[in-house]
Each structure stands twice: as C-alpha cells, then as structure tokens.
C-alpha cells in the first residue's frame, strides 16, 4: 500500500497506474489530495462563478433555484471587481442571456469596449456624449408594438416621471413643487403637439419631440399668470440644451440599438455636469425597455454603483429593478466599493432581503473593513478568515446562510477577451503588441508535474521553476500550506 501511495503521489517517482486492495477507510486516510465537497455546490447545475479556494471545487450557482437572480459585489480599487463582473457577463452571455454593462469610469486594465467588439455583430457599444451616441430623454425606447392601451399608458407615465427625475438630479434638488407640476403639464403638451398619445401605441411611430420642442412649450407659457414663473425658471436652467450650448447634442433622436446580445453603455464622455442625470435616464429607460416584450432574460451590470446610491432618484431606480426584476427576468449585478454605501443610502435592508448572492473581493482588506463586512453579512469566524486570506480576484461568496471562499478563475480565452488581446476579426494580437507582465514575476510549473497539479490542485514548491515562484502561486490562486508528514511525526 505504501508503494502504491508513493507511486501515485508524484514524488519521488510516478507510475501510469498501480493497483492494490485496501479498505475504504484506510484509502480515505491516505489518498485524497482535495475535498470534493463545497458548501455551495449543487451537483454541477447553473453558472460557473469560480473555484472554492479551500476545496478546489467549481462553484456552480443555479440562479433559477433562487428567489431572485440579483448579485451584489463589493470590493475596493484593485481587488479585481470589474474583471470579475466582465467574467460573469461573458459566461451569462454564453448561456443565451442578453447582458448590458454600464459604467461611468474608464478602466484601462479591463478593456470592456474591446470585449464588446469581440462579440460583434451581436454587440453594441453605446458611448454617449458630444459627437458620439445620444439618448433623446423624451423618446420612448419601446416601439409600442404588442402593447395594450393600459400597458402603453403605464410606459407613457413612467417616461414622464423619469424625465422629471432626470431634471431633479441635474438641477441638484432645486426643482420646486410648482415647477414640477408645470413640467408634468408641459410634457403632456409637447407630446400632444407631436401627436404622441398616452394610450395609443400606434401613434408612437410618429417622430418624438426633442428638448428644443419642450423648451418652446415653456417659451409659449412664460407670459402665463399661472405658469409663467415656472416656465422662465426652467428656460434659464436648461440654456445648455439650446443651439450652441454645451449639451445641444442631446437635441437629436435616440440612436442606440438594444436588441444586441452584448451591450456596453459607456458614460465616461458625458459632461460631468449632467452625468448623474444621464445615469438616471439611461438606466431607467433600460428597465422600461426590458420590462415588456423581451424573449430573453436580461442581466444589467452597474459598475461603480456608489455613484447611483448618492442620488435618491438613482437609488429608487435600482430599488425598482431589484424588487420587480424577477417578474420580467431582469437580473441586476450591482458593484460598489463598500457596503457602507448601502447604509448611507438607507438601502441595506432592501439589498439584504432582495439580493440573494453577495460577493466580497477582499485583497488587502484592513481590520476595520473586515469588522464592518462581518457585521453586515453576519459572517462566522471561518468566513472572516477566508476574507483575510484573499488575494486579487478572490474573496467570499455568500448565498443565504452559506458561504464559500471564492477565486474568480479565468480561462486563457476569457482573459484575452476581457483584456482586449484580440483584433476586430477575433484574431489574437501578436505577442509583441500585447501589454507585457512586469519582468521578475515569471515562473511556471515544471512540465512533468503540470498534469498532476491540474488534476489535484496541489503544487509543491520543488515542482516550480522561474524567478518568483511565490508570486506565481499567489496570482494563480494557491494558498500556502505545510503538508502533514505521513511517514513520521510533525509536518
């Protein structure tokens, strides 16, 4: 039995096969190199999220078995949050879901625009801003086809409310009740002039009004005793929308296509003065578009969600998605740097009760943050240890009362797609044009041990070669252990 064990262990020699009879209890003591069990395993069904860092088991999450499909992710800068989101989106897209990634910040480390280009022609890059794409805030994204009069009226009313909230955020809370009331009335008027009827979706084929048309309604009302003051205030506040103004590009029809399977909405080039207001508009319109007539499930991923939580209108929109999304098979992946953002927005209870999957990426997490996460997610001591031991791209995932230490493991193909290492025709970029890893960190598993390492998820230090084996192990998601000595006392 000892000879068989040594032959199968990879050191000091290995054989292709060997055989010996032994009792199962003794085999259980001697032979396993990893635990096949994971607290979150469910028999291989569902989406592969990552590996259990303790057991090496693939973590599969069956979203269909959950009360809702939403996922909340927290992690500071440099923890691998954006990479993990894009990894999940790529896998969800491969299952047939439509996915939309929206961000307000550039990220050179993850080439999300190149990732969308990789999936062309079934992809769309919506880069909004001057000289780029535009969303007309007065246009319904829904065509109206197949809607009942009651459904059409609900979309009409929602679009008006969305526009009012858009202006509330832009004006930073200075929209008075009188102005809000007049704004509601003037929206009805501008749609009437455009022959867009509330409960008749057939009329939605007519050209939609633009901001200039709405401003003209205000101009026509500025001498009114009842509404003149509100009209003048709105005219002054929206000067940037007029010809020659900084936001005049918004006076154009919506020119985006949301029918594609993989969509990136990039708000980086939107002028800072209106970026939060555009967040309200874009994501609110997305929710409306996918609430009706969608034959596929949709995943909307919001990166850097802390910006959403700082505006009531934005946080209300997020709340609307997480509470009503299941009815329309809309899944939300919401990422923020810290759970404290939820507390400040007074939304922690809603997220805790309506978002079943929580992920924390915790590389280099400090003691204060660990304490906060422990209380927020009600973690036990084991989960806290798993938090502390995480490297980049690692952390914990919690579903219900169960948690597992997770590593977001990518394939070579996924890495190349997310890092933009393909050209437009999906050909790999030549090595000399790729961004190179810094020298001094090169190491690898020796060829003769490669299969053993892959099979058993164990690497012994003398199986490695290169300049910095410790860095290699860390980046590959391995943890350092001292194996028990089976032939003598000690470890």
Task: Please explain how this structure is put together.
- This protein has helices at 2-9, 24-30, 81-94, 112-118, 149-170, 177-193, 211-221, 228-237, 275-290, 306-309, 312-324, 340-344, 348-354, 367-377, 381-388, 412-418, 450-456, 469-475; strands at 47-52, 58-61, 71-75, 98-103, 123-127, 262-266, 298-302, 330-336, 357-361, 394-399, 402-407, 443-445, 464-466.
- The model is unreliable at 32-37 and 429-441 (pLDDT under 50).
- It has 18 helices and 13 strands.
Q: Could you tell me the strand content as a percent range?
A: 5-15%
3D shape: elongated
Identify the strand order in the major beta sheet. Answer: 2-1-11-10-9-3-8-7-4-6-5
Helix tally equals: 18
Question: Mind telling me the C-alpha Rg?
Answer: 27 Å
Summary, kept brief:
The protein is an alpha/beta fold. The protein is built from 18 helices and 13 strands.
Keywords summarizing the entry:
491 residues, alpha/beta, 11-stranded mixed β-sheet, elongated
Sequence-ordered SSE layout with sheet pairings:
Elements lengths: L1 H8 L14 H7 L16 E6 L5 E4 L9 E5 L5 H14 L3 E6 L8 H7 L4 E5 L21 H22 L6 H17 L17 H11 L6 H10 L24 E5 L8 H16 L7 E5 L3 H4 L2 H13 L5 E7 L3 H5 L3 H7 L2 E5 L5 H11 L3 H8 L5 E6 L2 E6 L4 H7 L24 E3 L4 H7 L7 E3 L2 H7 L16
Parallel strand pairs: 3-8, 3-9, 4-6, 4-7, 5-6, 7-8
Antiparallel strand pairs: 1-2, 1-11, 9-10, 10-11, 12-13
Helix pairs in contact: 5-9, 6-7, 6-8, 7-8, 9-11
């Amino acid at each position: 039995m000892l000879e068989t064990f040594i032959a199968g262990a990879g050191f000091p020699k290995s054989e292709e096969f060997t055989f010996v009879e032994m009792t199962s209890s003794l085999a259980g003591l001697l032979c396993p190199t990893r635990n096949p069990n994971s607290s979150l395993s469910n028999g291989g069904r569902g989406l592969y999220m990552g590996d259990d860092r303790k057991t090496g088991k693939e973590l599969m999450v069956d979203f269909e078995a959950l009360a809702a499909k939403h996922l909340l992710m927290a992690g500071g800068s440099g923890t691998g949050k954006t990479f993990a989101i894009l990894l999940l989106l790529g896998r969800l897209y491969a299952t047939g879901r439509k996915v939309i990634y929206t961000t307000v910040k550039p990220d050179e480390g993850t080439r999300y625009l190149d990732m969308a280009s990789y999936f062309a022609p079934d992809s769309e890059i919506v880069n909004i801003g001057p000289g780029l794409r535009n969303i007309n805030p007065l246009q319904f994204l829904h065509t109206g086809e197949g809607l009942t009069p009651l459904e059409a009226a609900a979309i009409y009313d929602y679009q008006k409310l969305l526009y009012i909230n858009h202006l509330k955020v832009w004006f930073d809370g200075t929209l008075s009740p009188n102005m809000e009331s007049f704004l509601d009335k003037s929206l009805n008027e501008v749609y009437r002039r455009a022959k867009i009827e509330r409960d008749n979706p057939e009329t939605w084929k007519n050209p939609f009004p633009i901001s200039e048309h709405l401003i003209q309604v205000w101009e026509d009302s500025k001498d009114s005793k009842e509404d003149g003051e509100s009209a003048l205030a709105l005219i002054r506040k929206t000067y940037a929308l007029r010809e020659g103004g900084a936001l005049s590009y918004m006076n154009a029809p919506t020119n985006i296509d949301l029918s594609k399977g993989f969509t990136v909405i990039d708000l980086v080039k939107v002028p800072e003065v209106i970026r939060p207001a555009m967040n309200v508009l874009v994501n609110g319109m997305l929710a409306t578009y996918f609430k009706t007539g969608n034959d596929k499930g949709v995943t909307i991923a919001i990166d850097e969600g802390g910006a959403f939580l700082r505006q009531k209108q934005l946080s209300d929109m997020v709340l609307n998605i997480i509470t009503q999304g299941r009815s329309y098979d809309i899944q939300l992946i919401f990422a923020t740097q810290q759970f404290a953002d939820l507390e400040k927005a007074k939304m922690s209870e809603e997220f805790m009760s309506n978002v079943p999957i929580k992920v924390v990426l915790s590389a280099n997490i400090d003691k204060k943050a660990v304490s906060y996460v422990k209380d927020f997610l009600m973690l036990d001591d084991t989960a806290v240890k798993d938090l502390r031991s995480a490297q980049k791209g690692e952390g914990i995932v919690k579903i219900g009362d169960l948690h597992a230490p997770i590593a977001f493991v990518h394939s070579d193909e996924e890495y190349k797609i997310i890092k933009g290492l393909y050209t437009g025709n999906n050909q790999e970029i030549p090595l000399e044009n790729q961004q190179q890893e810094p020298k001094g960190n090169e190491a690898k598993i020796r060829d003769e041990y490669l299969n053993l390492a892959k099979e058993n998820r164990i690497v012994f230090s003398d199986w490695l070669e290169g300049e910095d084996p410790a860095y290699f192990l860390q980046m590959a998601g391995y943890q350092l252990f001292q194996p028990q000595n089976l032939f003598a006392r000690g470890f």
